[in-house]
Amino acid sequence: MTELDLNRPDMAALGRQAVDVLADWLDALEKSPASDYSPPDGLAERLRRPPAAGPGDFGELAETFLRAAGQGVNTAGPGYLAYFPAGGLYSAALAELLANAANRYTGLAQMSPALVAMEHGVLTWLCERFGLPPGAGGITTSGGSTATLSAVLAARQSRLGDDLTGATLYVTGHTHHCVAKAARICGLPAAVREVPVTGDLRMDVRAAAELIAADRAKGLRPFLLAGTAGTTGTGTIDPLPELAELASREGLWFHVDAAYGGGFQLTERGRPLLTGMERADSVALDPHKSMFLPYGTGVLLVRDPATLHAAHADGGDYLQDLAAMDGLPDFANLGVELTREFRGLRLWLPLHLHGVDAFTRELEEKLDLAAVVHRELAADPRFSVPWRPDLTVVVFRLREGDDERNRRLLQEINDGGQIYLSSTNVQGRLYLRLCVLSFRTHARHVERALQIIRAAADVG
Question: Is 336 helix (H, G, I), strand (E, B) or coil?
Fold first, then answer.
């Protein structure tokens, strides 16, 4: 196929071939290793080979891709229980094919008003589900880190203006590092203040109030308080209602990092745990975590979209032919990207195709399975399981043995290739960390994981 502009028969043939490759790949996930670092013969040489002047064979190229994708950690498989699994819905992959083939520009509404309306509709629905007031809005991003950057920029502009002197913002030692990174990018490297946590690993609201008061007394300018709805290390939810009240009382921007926990707003059990998020000025969430979408799918919701516009909007003479569209946002003026892919379809299509209840059922099952993991490990005298999971993250360690022994336990578990866990440090000690989140992970996979963990503990 030498021409870039393929004819219809060639497009159809390539499409069928690609779908067959993907269907075979996904069908094999059940039995695929959770991790594989064995070097396949000849792969490195094939990957480094420069492109030829003439056309290649799609089948051979796809086979090279599959061999490369088989290396490392299989984040799409049912045995991936580390970090935050991203299921990678097939329907979302089809949405990406459609969106990328259409290749419409959605940064400015006039360029593609109907597609912007489609994306805006999903964002409006999310605002409603999160309890934000009428008029709230947002933007889809490449992930929670980019969403957080835009939130911190908006907070900085809203609360501080152009004078950044003495700016301070408040996190805990369990807050995702993207908040501190965003502060650094925003020109506030010294602004981050760490608030102590309580014994159950939640931000200590009284300590936060005291620190804010002490900073004001020093002439500093507190402007942002960051709560977390599901920390990365332990999945713990901060006391959001109390933090919202503190932020309101002190005139601070209240940001909630719900990158992991936000999706559980769709469940009956998750919604009460996330009470207080509706009072946030901004909420960052990652549908590529608890809504099973592909990596690179983030969302930022804000109480007042004008705050995003004030922090991000700009222009140039080359844009003078583009006018605002009534009722539709110009996403390029709400975030850090001017050129952006159309991410809206990967949200819109799966939600409309499967229905919201399908997502709710999967999330409810993950809550159930995490409770099983906690109950089983807590009942085993060999393990210390200090904290009951708020959502689907369970942390544990051997009751007897130092951190090195627990590192060996983690390696023994992961080296088997059937499941993959991660670890974290809490209160100066290493804990293994198991997160049930993929829509492909079910009771039989969790039971297998428990058997593997118990067997590895027996190895000594």
Answer: coil
In the numeric block, the tokens 């409770």 are attached to 371
| 346-363 pLDDT tens trace | 999 999 999 999 999 999
CA–CA gap between residue 124 and residue 296 (Å, rounded): 20
Segments in 313-436 forming alpha helices (H): 344-354, 356-379, 403-415
> Quick check: 246 and 225 in contact, CB under 8 A?
yes
Sign of the Cα pseudo-torsion (160, 274, 206, 433, in order): negative
Residues β-bridged to residue 256: 227, 283
Does the global pTM surpass 0.70? yes
The neighbouring-strand residues paired with 195 are 172
The H-assigned helical ranges of 161-251 are 178-185, 205-217, 240-250
CB 74 within 8 A of CB 80: yes
Helix residue ranges per DSSP H, 72-143: 90-102, 113-129
| pLDDT band with cut points at 50, 70 and 90 for residue 1 | low
**DSSP conformational letter for 297:** -
Q: Give alpha helix (H) positions in 58-112.
A: 58-69, 90-102
Q: Who contacts 336 (Cβ-Cβ below 8 Å, separation ≥6)? A: 146, 149, 150, 153, 312
